[in-house]
Amino acid sequence: MRRQLYAEYTSALSRIRTALNECAQEDIPAAERRRKVREEFLTPGAYEIRHQLAIVAPPEIVDAARLAFVVLRDTRDLLVAGASVDDAAYEELEERFDAAVTELRTVMRLDLGAAKSIAAP
User: Is-contact 110 116, C-beta < 8 A?
Assistant: First the structure.
């Protein structure tokens, strides 16, 4: 069950990131931007999966899952405020998300008894 939830959650995070990146590149009228960005953020269901993780996953997974989610939530808020893909704050959040997801995958893999990382040393 954990393996399935881990796969669903990381997939949901990936879908959110892609959707937010597309919003960051689009010229969306301000009146529509908030609605579209929020809708794209909610559609993959990461909130719901995160609540499931909180029930069955060890604390280090729950903490890492929350951290990655918070970075995407901050990205959502930045885009709602009008930022674009070229803004330094957006680029910084992209880097923070990469680091958070790397850590999340590492603790998930360890929990499942897999190697610490799939990246070459």
Answer: yes
pTM value is 0.90
Contacts 24+ apart (CB under 8 A), 14-20: 15/43, 15/44, 16/40, 16/41, 16/44, 16/46, 16/72, 17/72, 17/75, 17/97, 19/43, 19/44, 20/72, 20/75, 20/76, 20/79
pLDDT, tens only, 21-79: 999 999 889 889 999 999 999 999 999 999 999 999 999 999 999 999 999 999 999 99
CB-based contacts of 111, cutoff 8 Å, min separation 6: 2, 6, 57, 58, 60, 61
Alpha-carbon span 81 to 58, nearest angstrom: 35
Contact present, 19 and 43 (Cβ < 8 Å):
yes
